[in-house]
Amino acid sequence: MNALSIRNLRKTYNNGFEALKGINLDVEEGDFFALLGPNGAGKSTAIGIISSLVNESSGSVSIFGHDLKTDRSRAKSCLGLVPQEVNFNQFDTVKSIVINQAGYYGLPRKLALQRTEHCLKQMDLWDKRDTVSRRLSGGMKRRVMIARAMVHAPKLLILDEPTAGVDIEIRRAMWKMMEAVNQQGTTIILTTHYLEEAESLCRNIAIIDQGLIVENTDMASLLARLHVDHFVLDLAESLANVPMIAGYQIERLADKVLSVAVPKELGLNQLFSQLSAHNIKVISLKNKSNRLEQLFMDLVESKPAGAK
Amino acid sequence: MNYSIALRTLVIKEVLRFVRIWPQTLLPPAITTALYFLIFGKLIGDRIGTINGASYMDYIVPGIILMSVISHSYANVVSSFYSTKFQHNIEELLVAPVPNWVILAGYVSGGIIRGLLVGLVVALISLLFADIVVNNVLITLSIVILTATVFSLAGFINAVLAESFDDISIIPNFVLTPLSYLGGVFYSVKMLPDIWQTVSRGNPILYMINAFRYGLIGVTDVNIQLAYIITGGFIVVLTFFSLFLLHKGIGIKN
């Protein structure tokens, strides 16, 4: 069963801006799905419609087979949303924010208390349960929103840029948490501007641009389309001249640093043997940029030919 | 889906909100109305004598109680719902499977409960100045609840349509307060010239205050049945309009 099915979804705002131009999208149950796109592409509008925060102009959305128009209550019961911006009452305590949300989803008080404790412990926030939320750090506020979204055990969790603005330590911890939630059977849709996050977490991906889905495939197939990898090499010694090696594009980035474009068909072994032949000793290497980022830029910089 | 749990959650949240800030919500009406009773009722009222057979102090008690109920039930919903909109907490309700009628009932219940609590506080203060024996308990309670409902609904509509904090103070300051004062809180409309009596009868608050006054002290300038029809009519119209706004997402959805 599809966790989410979107058919011919359109949205034109009152000012005439056409944010969505008829998108179709399916997300399978259990998937960890990335929805990417540049700012203003239509991601937030699509998520707004799925989570009933924005009225669609036309088209349909169904969540686990429940149509959002005709079977609204069941459809909403399956969904949890972690929005981009903090949207809880900052004068409420952490516990009351989460437990109230459980109440809105109709959880009886005893179960709501159990679920609240479980989610706050999972988010490492149990010690902060009686703290007024405005006193929390940015990372903690995001975790409160995740706990709130999970309190009714949704089958589909939408995370709209959950790690934006949090430090790398918290981001890594949140990645682990998201993976654990997904492994427990919750379908996750993730939007993020950190493309390495999408690459490492998600199995399938859709890229939206100018109100159209310009790519919708699995992550492995998308990355396989990348023909050239860019590496940065740290050298043991300075070079008088940049070596010329057939098939590779080499640039000097700094005194002992080179950038090399490596075609997939040639690979790294040939590069290293050629560098050795030039008496160039490499100390270390790393990817110059995220692979998905290159594909993303290629896709959104070329005009979409049509909706998928 | 059990909507009673969602409704109870929302009502408890709303009540805790105004109880938590009781120095701002429950204390001021006690002080203000004590001053009304002291200055208008005691100091000036002794020189006025009786109105329609009631002492001036007894005459103004129902109006002052109901005026407090009106302003606080309205203020509770308009400030709470607008803050919810402003801080985007409304999204918590919109995402969840909470029907529009539960959202409306939750906020309106919060307004009614605050209105009634403030009314009770003012009524207790009035006992220090007047010796009121309730004339008709049913009319007294039903009118105060219906009036609190009307103004909670009006506050909800104001909050939904408001786009700034200025918008939530315009109606209370420029419409509600003048209509309350001109609704016969401190005087009988029969004391007015004919033309102003006619104009006053276009003010719905006049009917509510007089019906409440009848319930408390048995004195009224208006027909009680007409007061019920007008109050009930407002509740029906405002409820449907509120549900229409929620259904369309006006002011709360993009």
What does this 3D model show about the protein?
Chain A is an alpha/beta fold and 308 residues long. Chain A folds into 2 domains: 2-223, P-loop containing nucleotide triphosphate hydrolases (Rossmann fold, 3-Layer(aba) Sandwich), CATH 3.40.50; 227-288, Alpha-L RNA-binding motif (Alpha-Beta Plaits). In chain A, 33% of the residues lie in helices and 29% in strands. In chain A, the strands form 3 sheets. Chain A has a 6-stranded mixed beta sheet with strand order 6-7-8-3-9-10, with helices on both faces. In chain A, strand 9 and strand 10 (212-218) form a beta hairpin. The two termini of chain A are 20 Å apart. Chain B has 254 residues and is mostly helical. Chain B has one domain. Chain B contains 11 helices and 2 strands; from the N terminus they run αααββαααααααα. Chain B has helices spanning 3-20, 22-25, 27-48, 56-86, 90-95, 100-126, 137-161, 167-181, 194-200, 204-217, 224-248, and strands spanning 50-51, 54-55. In chain B, a hairpin with a 2-residue loop joins strand 1 and strand 2 (54-55). The mean pLDDT of chain B is 93. Chains A and B meet through helix 2 and helix 3 of A and helix 1 and helix 5 of B.
